[in-house]
Design goal:
By secondary structure, this protein is mostly helical. It contains 9 helices and 3 strands, in the order ααααβββααααα.
């Protein structure tokens, strides 16, 4: 039995098990991710929207398409939960969002309301209430990175990778990180993972403290 345990391959790390593999020299540090969020204006309406958008992708580990598909009703600011729309052929999932990010979303929702943008429109929309395109995020992040003086390449999934790495460093179990990110364990790793509830995952993510 002991010999079997030794020969069993180690489980992949949560970051390595993600659907897209990041390069270690492109992984954002917590300070860089925070600087990326703060690089948007804290006064202009589009800046407030972009702060909330980038923070949501970072702190809730959302893919850009998932963040852009959200509507206001998907985010429960009181409970700290995010109902993530399903990808093609997939299932929706529930995860969490911390208090600081919720405050940014709340400010943006206020600006939306002032402009008469209704709850059926995308959460992160244009000032006219139209949906943002993925190309906007691809162009936005490098621009913010330059403003924040971040030298490494910042691509649309960089914030998701940073989120996964930080959760692993904080000691969150791999099964919870998988559920949070909507990533299925690969190969033989599946048999060693305990099932965790979405509610437990959402509560753990929502409880994380983040100050910017």
């Amino acid at each position: 039995m002991e010999l079997e345990e030794r020969s069993r391959p180690p489980l992949p790390s949560p970051v390595a098990m993600m659907d897209e593999t990041p390069l270690s020299n492109e992984l954002l540090t917590p300070e860089e991710a925070a600087a990326l969020v703060a690089a948007s204006s804290s006064r202009a309406p589009t800046g407030l929207r972009n702060r909330a958008l980038v923070a949501m992708m970072y702190r809730s580990g959302l893919r850009p398409g998932e963040a852009l598909a959200l509507v206001p009703g998907d985010v429960d600011l009181e409970a700290g939960t995010v109902r993530v729309p399903p990808r093609k052929g997939g299932q929706p999932r529930l995860t969490g969002v911390d208090a600081t990010t919720r405050s940014m979303v709340r400010v943006w929702l206020g600006r939306r309301a002032e402009r008469g943008i209704g709850p059926d429109q995308a959460l992160f929309c244009t000032l006219a209430g139209e949906s943002l395109k993925a190309a906007y995020v691809r162009e936005l992040l490098p621009r913010l990175a330059k403003r924040a003086e971040i030298g490494k390449r910042v691509h649309p999934l960089a914030l998701r990778y940073a989120n996964a790495a930080e959760l692993a460093e904080e000691g969150m179990p791999a099964a919870m990180i998988d559920r949070h990110l909507g990533v299925a364990p690969m190969g033989g790793a599946r048999r060693y993972r305990r099932t965790v509830s979405e509610q437990d995952v959402a509560a753990a993510v929502a409880a994380r403290v983040w100050r910017i």
